[in-house]
Amino acid sequence: MSHSPKPMRKRTYLAAAGFSALAASVVPQQVVRAAAPFGSEPLAQDRVIALAQPLSDDRWTLIVLEQREPAPPCWRRNANGSVLTYEMHLPEATCGRYLSSSAYSLRAGGEDLRQPWRLRVENNNGQLQLLASGSRQAEPLLIGTGRAAGSALVELRLQNNWAFERRTFDGQSLSHLYVAHANPLPVLLAEARNGGGIPQLAQLPAPPPPLAPEPRRSGSAPAGRRNSSRTAEAATESARASRATSQPVVSTSSSRLDRLEALRAGGPRSLAQATAGQGQTDGVIALQVVPYNP
Going by DSSP bridges, is the β-strand pair 104-108/172-181 parallel, antiparallel, or unpaired? Predict the structure, then answer.
C-alpha cells in the first residue's frame, strides 16, 4: 500500500513561505536602520574652542576642546591671542579633546561632507586660516581665522556663520563634533568663488534719474520787466507830445475851402487875404492869371 507525499510537501511549502515572510519583515528594517543618516544638535559656542597647534616645518594642525563641565576651566585666553590649555590634567568627562579628523568633520545643509573634504590650517605671513577643501574644488571654504603667536596654541575664531554641532544617531548624542553651516554646499561654493560674499545675480541697468520739473511760466512779466516797459512807453509818449507841440497841425481841407471861397468872390485881393491869413504852413502856392491891358 503506497502513501501519497502531497501532504508532506504542502507542510514544507507552508513552513518555507512563513520563514520567507518573517525574513522579509526583518531584513528591510535592518537595512533602513543601517542606512539612516546622521543628525546633529547645536552646542553652546562658548563651551567649544578651535585651536591651531604649530608643528615642524611651518605646519599646523587643528585641535578642538569642549568644556563639558562648568569647572574647572579647560583653557585660558592670553592677551596676545595665544591659549593655555589644561586638558592634560583634567578627566575627559570635564574636558573633551578632539584631535583628528576621526573626531570632527564637516557638515553643510544638513548633510555630512565626507572624503575628499577635509579641514586644514595654513599660515600666510602670520595669518592663520582654517580651510575646508576638496580635491575637485579650486576655491577652499574659509571657516576660521587667527594670528600666529610663536610656538603657542592660537585660537581660531569661526566666521561666516560656521558653528560647532554634535553628531546624533537615533536621537542619541555621539562623541563626534561637526564644523557645520546651515547653507548647502553649492551655496557655500558660490560664495567662495564670489570672494566670500553673497552670490551676485544678474542685475538690470539702473534706470535714468527723473527729469527735473520745468519752471512754471507766469502769464505776467516780472515786476522789473513791467517797470522797464512802462518807462519806455512813457518816454515814447513824451517824445511824441513834444513833436506835436513844436509842429502845428494844419488842416488841409479847411485851407482849400478858404481858397475856393476867395476865388468865388472874384478878386485877387480876397485870394491874397485868404492866403495871407493861412500863412505858409500848407506849402501850396495859388496862381491867378490876370489879362494885361496896355
Answer: parallel
